């Protein structure tokens, strides 16, 4: 063979070898994204989350001014109904409605009402704002549950409106349940969430820190209480201390796991707001968290509750907006997929509240966990070990501290070690996208290792504005939510 042919053959060989390494995903994360499909960018360029130019232009609000949202899918569209909320001015009353065809791009489509009904206004001493609605489809029509309350009191009213169309018009049907400072009810008539049991019978979970969270049965024909005046059964409580609030209940049923899951918001809505969860075999409870605590228990440690498994909390990744007030969630089952929506306030201006939509995954032991990144249309697919080698940002949500949690560095090395090539800590990835992180803790952990099992998936990196890979799960030791995001270099 001539020298020229040898050189050509050698060059071709090198190109093939390099190409194989890139496709296989080995080495640094510059090429770790090969052979995987990723969501498209949600917009042409990063979105400014504090934009005073759109304050009074509803057509450009998109996710802005969204608070206490509840979500429903009708045909091929998604609708979010939310509290009357606005930055920099008093909001127009009526329950805001937003619409999307992909859970990513949202348009403001109007309001349900023009004003609070006279009966409701009288009971709440002139309150003008609708709070925390929920809407369900039943009996071939739509049932909208709304609440109005005199702020800081138990003078509260849950009402019902119905419509043949999700976009209205709506007819007010009056009282479902009301409370006042003079009555003997423990519950506060606010924040209704509607859920169906195994027999498709509707129930309403509702309440707040004023007296706890209750669930009561509804009459399927009228949409109102099965037993008028019955507050039902308490399913969660933290006492009446305003520094330890809980509110915004929602329940979903997973038929494959045969559990009901109760989500709640703990903390203060402008900063420490966070989503916690418990599960039960029965719709009326008891709802237990990851550590077996009953959500009705009032247990505090260092001023923060050690009850309820926190799955979303205030957080900050590098190079982007830090988020707080990450609470008051809604839940959606869409085919085989589950989603959670919630408020999120920009830390640099806490009055700007946005809608966040996240995909939910399910742990091996049956707990829902949220994606670290807002949904951008990603699909589940197989991830290879080579795809996840590199530098990550990791967030661990302390169950006892509800302040904002900032990411820390985590490195998954090619030799299977974590952070250091000689470390006793190591990782492995299974064929079903379960990443196991083994943390060496001799004489402390079972078999000397805490094993955190997290789910790996693709995502859009909203902070760095590029495609990435993420993980989410609960750690073995405390059941604390752990998020991770691969740092993708140019």
- CATH fold description of the domain at 52-370: Tachylectin-2, Chain A
Strand order of the largest sheet: 27-25-32-31-30-29-28
User: What is the overall pLDDT average?
Assistant: 91
Total beta strands: 32
The SS-based structural class is: mainly beta
Extract low-pLDDT stretches.
Answer: 1-28
Shape: globular
| Contiguous helical run count | 2
Your description of this structure?
There is one protein chain. The chain has a domain at 52-370: Tachylectin-2, Chain A (5 Propeller), CATH 2.115.10. Helix content is 6%, strand content 39%. It has 2 helices and 32 strands. The chain has helices at 3-24, 118-123, and strands at residues 70-74, 77-82, 96-100, 107-111, 131-138, 141-149, 156-163, 171-179, 193-196, 202-208, 212-217, 233-236, 246-254, 259-266, 274-280, 300-301, 304-305, 309-312, 315-316, 323-324, 330-334, 337-346, 353-362, 368-370, 390-396, 405-406, 408-412, 426-429, 434-440, 449-461, 466-474, 481-486. The strands form 8 sheets. The chain has a 7-stranded antiparallel β-sheet with strand order 27-25-32-31-30-29-28, with no helix packed on it. The longest helix is centred in the first third of the chain and has 22 residues, at 3-24. It is globular, with a radius of gyration of 24 Å. It starts with a helix and ends with a strand.
